[in-house]
Amino acid sequence: MQVKVKRISKAIFCLSFFSVLGASGLYAQESIYVSLNPPVVLPDGSEFKTWSDKTVFTRTYYVDQRHPRALDNNEGSEENPFLTINKAAQVVRADEKVVVKSGVYRELVQPKSGGDGPDKMISFEAAPGAKVIIKGSRILRRKWTESKKDGVLSSAKLWMGSLPDDYFESDNPFLTENASKEDIDIMPWASEWAGKLPYTLGRGLVFQNGKRLVQRATYEELAKSPGFFWVEKENKRLHIYPYGEINPNKATFEITTQQHIFKPAVADLGYIRVKGFIFEHVGNGFPRTGVGALFTMGGHHWIIEDNIVRSVNSVGIEIGARTDETKAGRAVDGKRAERSLGYMIVRNNEMYECGTGGIQGLLVKNGLVENNRIHHCGWQNVQRYWETGAIKLLLNRGTLVRKNIITDIEAAPGIWMDYDNINSRVTQNVLANIESVNGAIFIEASQVPNIVDRNFVWNVKGSGIYQHDCDELTVAHNFVAHCSKEAVEMRICQGRMVNGRLSTCKRNSVLNNIFIKAPKGVSFIDDDNLSDNNIFVDCGGPFNFNEWRKKGFGPNSITAEINASFNQQKLDFTWSTEVKLPLYLKIGICTHDFFDSAWKGEKVPAGPFSYPTAGTNSLKLTGL
């Protein structure tokens, strides 16, 4: 074990001359990038840097659909505003912004230009105090009639209406499969689902007075419960069983008519801010690229903040550099994406009722995903096509995912850093009530150092922190409680090749964590890993703490009695203990606690918090 500690600690605790020189040289040239407060260090010892909007805008265009003079052939002044946001998106240029006033805008916004730098950005923002809802749906203004199948009236409770072509500007989501055979051909890991439900269902959504109906695969299923709909594709008709068994002509029905709400007209636009909008009702699909309701189209240096994204068929926000994985486009797209600068910022957004996930991206460089609230996502229940997650980012390069609050996620991990991650960090996140075969936090197939630290994980159907096919991963100072499986699970997929070599699970470290009520404790598939300085509480059953120590794991770990509870709605955490808990040596880049208070001294608590003092201690896990 001494050899292993020495080898692993070199990657964890030390800053190499190369990494320091490389970082300082990089940021000397890139003066637009600044430190976070407090500074955040990445696994290679370099400092994570971010940037901000420094633009003094020279012109403002106004959009106000409620203004009596609003027209798209106006000049876009406050007195003579544009009628649509997309009109403003066609004319706005660098160091100009678009301000949108209250209203419901049913349109696809497609900017044609980006900014020229942090001091010459383009900004799209809701007016102060305004409620701006951008919808990918239209009200179905057709008379509903009693439903018939093959000309036969089946039930007085069922109704039908047409899906007229003039409602759809491009592809009709109701006639487009969630994942066609062609879609699945570019996702060979999902090949078993070709031609099966719900992948063959259409992408369209239906809302009755704002409440989403559930799609059924056959007409016969429709009558089983109110709140269902079925699509008769051949005749472009919609059949419904309304909530409350009401006459639908007395309610408002909206149908999704587009697969995006905000999507640039061309790839690679940079320096765009999107702020303060509500995006909803999108009929997007399951492929892992090109489906976000808000889709940055491979752009770089965007700031996406203070928005709400809700009620979409698959993904809320997509930020990756890759945009096209089709057989015809993947080669060109891959070369284009490799040139991307990245530096996407996604912060302070709320996402819910997203079918497969909240934030997604393929090839994320220097990204910052922070302070987002993601909840009640994953209702499509398609986790085994392996493209779901409240946050799912692939091919991360120097990316920081921190301070997000993720709750009530089904059939999806809370955070999934997927494949060949390099020098990235997942820290200070709150995850609660997660159901996933891949755990609440999932790191996959990465061969160089990454770190998962100071996270709070509570109530997981599955493992708390899970990885497969990773080397050099550090899991440190986390609080993981109430998992149905392991608190930390590390394994390999037998026979898998990663970057030209057989995948392994070696030189990983599990240090300075607190684990409560995880019946399988910690598990490694390979003994060439390190686990120590952890506190185990009620981790009995399949996990045997004494046997674990006999294998050389955890000579300084202990078992203890800690009482802990968590109010998920209020995000209140309370805990207490009557024993004195040990302090452990500080891990190199874990210099602060969960709340960004600096640890003092060389020895620090296990877990992300200061230990409780006498009595019960309460912490508010918000406002990180």
Biggest β-sheet, characterized?
13 strands, parallel
Radius of gyration: 26 Å
The helix content is under 10%
Strand content: 35-45%
According to DSSP, the number of beta strands is: 55
Structural class: mainly beta
Shape descriptor reads globular
Low-confidence stretches: 1-29
* Average pLDDT rating: 94
Instruction: Give, in spatial order, the strands making up the sheet with the most strands.
Output: 3-4-6-19-22-25-28-31-34-37-40-45-48
Q: Tell me the distance between the termini.
A: 37 Å
> How many helices?
7
Brief overview:
This protein is mainly beta and 624 residues long. Among the domains are: 1-31 and 466-536 and 543-598 and 605-624, no CATH class; 140-255, Immunoglobulin-like. 9% of the residues lie in helices and 36% in strands.
Any overview of this molecule?
Helices cover 9% and strands 36% of the residues. By secondary structure, it is mainly beta. Among the domains are: 1-31 and 466-536 and 543-598 and 605-624, no CATH class; 140-255, Sandwich (Immunoglobulin-like), CATH 2.60.40. Strand 1 and strand 2 form a beta hairpin. The protein is globular.
Provide the descriptors you would attach to this structure in a database record.
13-stranded parallel beta sheet; Immunoglobulin-like; 9% helix; 55 strands; single chain; 624 residues; 36% strand; mainly beta; 7 helices
